[in-house]
Amino acid sequence: MTTITTPYEAIGGAEGVRRLVDRFYQVMDEWPQAWAARRLHPERLDGSRESLFEFLSGWLGGPDLYVQKKGHPRLRMRHLPYAIGPAERDAWMLCMRTALDDCVADADLREALLQAFGALADHMINTPDGGRDPAAGAARQL
């Protein structure tokens, strides 16, 4: 009998997801190259960190924590107040790529997750030039 392992299980369950999220936000908070993504977040990252952990838990095949707490993720709708362009996507992906490299040992799983996160990040783009759009001044202030 073949046992199917979810990505959630393959990266170590809740502990693995927590490690991934913690590393992701560490990079976002510390690396200047991540500023385009970091500036869209509040000064304190605790709430963002918890939301991403809850979302990834379900997205990776584990407990659907985000849905239980907040309903359907509606990611694009929830991100519409923020001007997200290629620079913001690239900065976000830098953080995620680094977190995956540091936290996911299996190369095939890491590559599959990188592709899935890339598609997700592309879907969040809502303006061609992100925070550089003068009409997006309110989002830049965050």
Automatic annotation (TrEMBL):
Keywords: Heme, Iron, Metal-binding, Transport. InterPro entries: GlbO/GLB3-like, Globin-like_sf, Globin/Proto, Hemoglobin_trunc. This is Group 2 hemoglobin GlbO. Belongs to the truncated hemoglobin family. Group II subfamily. SUPFAM superfamilies: Globin-like (SSF46458). Gene3D superfamilies: Globins (1.10.490.10). GO terms for molecular function: heme binding; metal ion binding; oxygen binding; oxygen carrier activity. The keyword Metal-binding applies. The keyword Heme applies. PANTHER family: TWO-ON-TWO HEMOGLOBIN-3.
